[in-house]
Specification:
The complex is a heterodimer. Chain A contains 8 helices and no strands. By secondary structure, chain A is mostly helical. In chain A, helix 2 crosses helix 3, helix 5 runs antiparallel to helix 8 and helix 7 crosses helix 8. Chain A is globular. Chain B contains 9 helices and 6 strands; from the N terminus they run H-H-H-H-H-H-E-E-H-E-E-E-E-H-H. Chain B has 3 domains: 52 residues, no CATH class; 36 residues, no CATH class; 136 residues, no CATH class. Chain B is an alpha+beta fold. In chain B, strand 3 and strand 4 form a beta hairpin. Chain B has a 4-stranded antiparallel β-sheet, sandwiched between helices. In chain B, strands 1-2 form a two-stranded antiparallel sheet. Classes of the chains: A mainly alpha, B alpha+beta. The interface between A and B is large, with 41 and 38 residues.
């Protein structure tokens, strides 16, 4: 049970990671579910003594990349105009708070995948550069350049609000 | 002194070596433009972290816990057993991450502790069975009834931790002893055991059990735990 217990403890963080990658709550939980299932199937491949969280993040990230690529989805979410129309009827205050929430989601969603995952691992999940680079199988220099570009884009999107 | 974007970001991310940190701090103090650049990067990091943080305290959906409970080795895989597993997992769901497993450990350990003492209520047992309930007896009953958190008499086997009113309305108290720790709630004239853990002799274990009990207590509380004043008043009024 220890393995399952450790996974359960990790779940709140994994859900957060998944949410920042996918934006959508259901997509994020689908991703977590697939990641848990894969982890249980491949539990023999996890080496006790190594970090389970990194291993799980890696699995989650790999499934996400596979899913996005398989679906051939465009990286940018289609319909910001529709979303704007949906909040148009709300009263001003609610609209403002919803807009703010959407701002971060939308800005993250507009990032290319490789920048989004780098930003998510370091800025949201708090991984050190070395850990994040290892998790993504990229050199640290590649990670930092993705972080720079991702952050610049986010600053542009979020502007002074950030 | 100028710093490139990557260096400023690395500084905000805590990735710079001590010398670079010093140099940036010094430069920031003298250069408002640089200070603003650093501030913007820090604000972005804070904003992202704050935006996603609430996800970690959301209730975890059943379908995710079910993946894990279904995978646990179980001889009885009947529908009712699976249902029980799911309900168990549901009970354990928590908004407090680690607390979740503290709660589980405390719940599971009840059986272990009862097994250790038996239910006969021998003269040394801190518990005795009353109907379906396990209630404090002997020295534990005395501690829960008379002791304040601030004062542990030399002859007492137990130290009192938190006293609080549970959502059920009952007054509950956490206790720690060399052999057993737990939470008891006032029920009529008795202190009914809600949760127990082996006390353990090693300090790290005690530490762990105390954390687990506090997590259970936090979930039970209707409000904040009582301060010393409220605790004393509650004792004087017979834990009503």
């Amino acid at each position: 049970m220890a393995f399952e217990q450790d996974l359960l403890e990790l779940l709140p963080r994994l859900r957060r990671f998944a949410r920042s990658l996918t934006r959508d709550i259901n997509d994020a939980d689908d991703l977590c579910q697939m990641a848990l299932e894969r982890a249980l199937n491949k539990r023999d491949q996890w080496q006790a003594g190594t970090r389970l969280d990194s291993w799980m993040y890696r699995i989650t990230r790999n499934i996400w990349i596979d899913t996005v690529r398989a679906a051939g989805r465009r990286e940018h979410v289609a319909n910001d105009d529709d979303a704007m129309a949906n909040v148009a009827g709300d009263d001003h205050q609610r609209m403002e708070s919803r807009m703010e929430l959407r701002d971060v989601d939308r800005a993250m969603d507009r990032l290319p995948l490789e920048q989004r995952e780098a930003v998510s691992l370091v800025l949201v999940e708090g991984f050190a550069y070395k850990e994040a680079a290892a998790l993504l199988d990229i050199p640290i220099g590649t990670l930092t350049s993705r972080l720079v570009r991702g952050r610049e884009a986010l600053q542009r999107e979020l502007g002074e609000a950030a | 002194m100028t710093f490139d974007k990557a260096t400023i970001m690395a500084y905000v991310d805590g990735e710079c070596d001590a010398v670079t940190v010093k140099r940036i701090e010094k430069a920031v103090a003298a250069d408002p433009v640089l200070a603003e650049r650093v501030g913007r990067e820090r604000a972005l990091r804070d904003k992202l972290a704050a935006h996603y943080a609430p996800v970690t305290i959301e209730e975890i959906p059943d379908r995710l816990t079910a993946v894990l409970t279904a995978a646990s080795p179980s001889v009885d895989s009947s529908f009712s057993a699976r249902k029980a597993d799911q309900q168990h997992a549901k009970r354990l769901r928590s908004r407090f991450g680690i607390a979740q497993w503290g709660a589980m450990a405390a719940t599971l350990a009840l059986g272990v502790v009862i097994g250790q003492y038996g239910l006969g209520g021998g003269s040394n047992s801190p518990f005795v069975q009353e109907g379906d309930a396990l209630v404090a007896s002997g020295s534990l009953d005395k501690a829960l009834e008379k002791q304040l958190a601030s004062a542990k008499p030399d002859d007492s086997d137990f130290r009192i931790g938190l006293t609080f009113r549970a959502k059920s309305g009952a007054i509950c108290r956490s206790f720690a002893g060399a052999a057993v720790s737990g939470i008891g709630c006032r029920d009529g004239q008795h202190w009914q055991m809600v949760s127990t853990l082996p006390g353990g002799v090693q300090s790290d274990y005690r530490q762990a059990s105390s954390g687990a009990l506090n997590a259970v207590a936090a979930e039970m509380m209707a409000d904040a735990p009582m301060d010393a004043d409220a605790e004393r008043k509650s004792l004087e009024s017979g834990w009503k």
